[in-house]
Amino acid sequence: MAHFDQSYSRAVAGLKILLPLFALGILSTLFMLSRPVDPEANLPFSDEEVQELKKEQRVGRPSYTGMTGDGSAITVVADAARPDITNPARFDADNLSAQIETERGVRIDIDAPSGVIDNDSELLTLSGGVEVQTSDGYTVLTDEVETTLDSTRLQTTGRVQGSGPAGDLWADQMEMTQQENGSTLMVFKGDVKVIYKQE
Question: How far is residue 55's CA from residue 49's CA, in Å, rounded to a whole number?
């Protein structure tokens, strides 16, 4: 019995020395075989992008989803957005896409290279060459569109060119609103020209 206790004690004492040495050997091998890592080599940004990120705060791929007071679902997505220094509730955005779907299922898609989201006035302004498409067959091109985030309403600030089920059209301005009965009304204003399609 005493012999067994001595053997056990010697084994434990030996392992207390050998195991830490073994662990130390493994760690030293890892450090010797590892290659130095260049922290700048693994950055997923170019030097220009890094400098731009240093200059300005911005959010990548921001999105806004909500419901208007008259029941339309609205979604806005952008490639990037930057807060206005003078007004934190206002954001400048790049490559915006907005989608409005009314209660009656009419869908309005708006795409623009740039825009401004103003949370105070609940207004989205899309600019730089805007395309508006509706699920009932209208496509409109214009320089700038303003749409409200709290109701189903959009209007152009200048001339429009487009096409629809009836034909091609030009107008000084376009306004689209949702009526009390849930239908969508598109009105072309000012000097309006329509070339009707021959069936």
Answer: 10
Spatial distance between the Cα atoms of 105 and 183, rounded to a whole number of angstroms: 10
Which H/E stretch holds residue 52?
A: helix 47-55
Q: Are 101 and 72 in contact (CB under 8 A)?
A: yes
DSSP 8-state secondary structure symbol assigned to residue 45: S
Q: Is the full-model pTM beyond 0.85?
A: no
**Coil, strand or helix: which one is 72?**
coil
CA–CA distance from 93 to each of 66, 97, 114 (Å)? 18, 10, 6
Number of residues written out for the chain: 199
DSSP state of 121: T
pLDDT, tens digit (0-9, with 9 covering 90-100), for 133-189: 999 899 999 999 999 988 999 999 999 999 988 899 999 999 999 888 888 899 999
Structure tokens at 52: 């731009």
Q: Distance (Å, rounded) from C-alpha 74 to C-alpha 78?
A: 14
Which residues have a Cβ under 8 Å from the Cβ of 65 and sit 6 or more positions away?
73, 74, 75, 76
The region that residue 65 occupies, defined by phi over 0 for left and psi between -120 and 50 for alpha, beta otherwise, is beta
